[in-house]
């Protein structure tokens, strides 16, 4: 608590499962969520949290929004995944990154 307001921090680990966007193998990337928020009574829009109402924190809504913002743009099995050959569909990792001719 800071004076008549709150300085809040939310940290947790998360992972998602699905197909790699490049090679279509199963992927389960893990990532960290680290969000901060403040609420100051009468502080204007910049100092009022959408997650605090009547001095009650809506933790589920805050965690959901923080998770959505932290999600990777693509699910990848690894950051260096090469993907599939655009001609034959073979996994390029097994072919030393050479596509079909």
General description of the model:
The chain is α+β, with helices and mostly antiparallel strands. It is built from one helix and six strands; from the N terminus they run ββββββα. The strands form three sheets. A two-stranded antiparallel sheet has the order 1-4. Strands 2-3 form a two-stranded antiparallel sheet. The chain is rod-shaped. It starts with a strand and ends in a 31-residue tail after the last helix.
Provide the spatial order of strands within the biggest beta sheet. Answer: 1-4
- Main beta-sheet strand count, sense and barrel state: 2 strands, antiparallel
Please mark out the parts with pLDDT under 50 across 5 or more consecutive residues, or reply none: none
Number of beta-strand segments: 6
> Which series of helices and strands comes N to C?
EEEEEEH
Head-to-tail CA distance between termini: 65 Å
User: Helical content, roughly?
Assistant: 10-25%
Question: Globular, elongated, flat, extended or rod-shaped: what is the shape?
Answer: rod-shaped
Our estimate of the beta-strand percent is 25-35%
Mean pLDDT: 85
* Rounded radius of gyration (Å): 21 Å
Summarize the structure.
With 101 residues, this protein is an alpha+beta fold. Helix content is 12%, strand content 30%. The model has no long low-confidence stretch (mean pLDDT 85).
Features:
single chain; 101 residues; alpha+beta; two-stranded antiparallel ribbon; two-stranded antiparallel sheet; 1 helix; rod-shaped
